[in-house]
């Protein structure tokens, strides 16, 4: 895994083999950030990265100038890796060790963009619960964007705030627009 653009472009993220992660491929990540680059000013964003894993998405945002990024993961070893890597890269990443569903029920944070990359085998109801918690608790700022990465075998088009999706190999990014 590498950071594909920004001031840390080319830096490799080498996670220990034992971590329970499936990082977003460089190709899919590059395509996603090309889409976002045309829609957003990275320096102005508050971003929450749910199921952050090794922080591939968090570090990509920070490399592109986003100052306020919160990475949430429940796995102790992922948190350790995120902490070590953000220190090595001299980044001020806000790292929270928490079950994502608990975090969504309790957090006071609001974001312009929330990215969620849950396990691909998550039951459909739990994908729906992510969107539902974010919408009900108004965790996105006005015209905020939720992006959920999932496998091509999951279909999230029926969710009320769904707006579009992009497919890259086995990965799909579904976009959800929340209006205040």
TrEMBL record:
GO molecular function, a single term: methyltransferase activity
PROSITE patterns, A to Z: N6_MTASE (PS00092)
InterPro entries xrefs: DNA_methylase_N6_adenine_CS (IPR002052), RNA_MeTrfase_RsmD (IPR004398), SAM-dependent_MTases_sf (IPR029063)
Family annotation (SUPFAM superfamilies): S-adenosyl-L-methionine-dependent methyltransferases
UniProt keyword annotations, A-Z: Methyltransferase, Transferase
Nucleotidyltransferase listed as a keyword: no
Cross-referenced Pfam families: Cons_hypoth95 (PF03602)
GO biological process, any: rRNA methylation
PANTHER family: METHYLTRANSFERASE (PTHR43542)
Protein name per Swiss-Prot or TrEMBL: Methyltransferase
UniProt organism field: Psychroflexus aurantiacus
Lineage: Bacteria, Pseudomonadati, Bacteroidota, Flavobacteriia, Flavobacteriales
């Amino acid at each position: 895994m590498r950071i594909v653009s920004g001031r840390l472009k080319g830096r490799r993220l080498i996670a220990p083999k034992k971590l329970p992660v499936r990082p977003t491929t460089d190709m899919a990540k590059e395509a996603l950030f090309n889409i976002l680059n045309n829609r957003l000013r990275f320096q102005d964003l508050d971003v929450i990265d749910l199921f952050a894993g090794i922080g591939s998405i968090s570090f990509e945002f920070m490399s592109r100038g986003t100052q306020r990024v919160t990475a949430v993961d429940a796995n102790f070893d992922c948190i350790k890796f995120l902490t070590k890597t953000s220190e090595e890269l001299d980044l001020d990443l806000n790292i929270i060790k928490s079950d994502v569903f608990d975090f969504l029920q309790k957090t006071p944070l609001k974001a312009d963009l929330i990215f969620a990359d849950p396990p691909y085998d998550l039951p459909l109801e739990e994908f729906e619960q992510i969107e539902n918690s974010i919408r009900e608790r108004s965790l996105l700022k006005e015209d905020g964007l939720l992006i959920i990465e999932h496998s091509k075998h999951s279909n999230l088009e029926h969710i009320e705030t769904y707006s579009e999706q992009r497919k890259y190999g086995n990965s799909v990014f579904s976009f959800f627009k929340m209006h205040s």
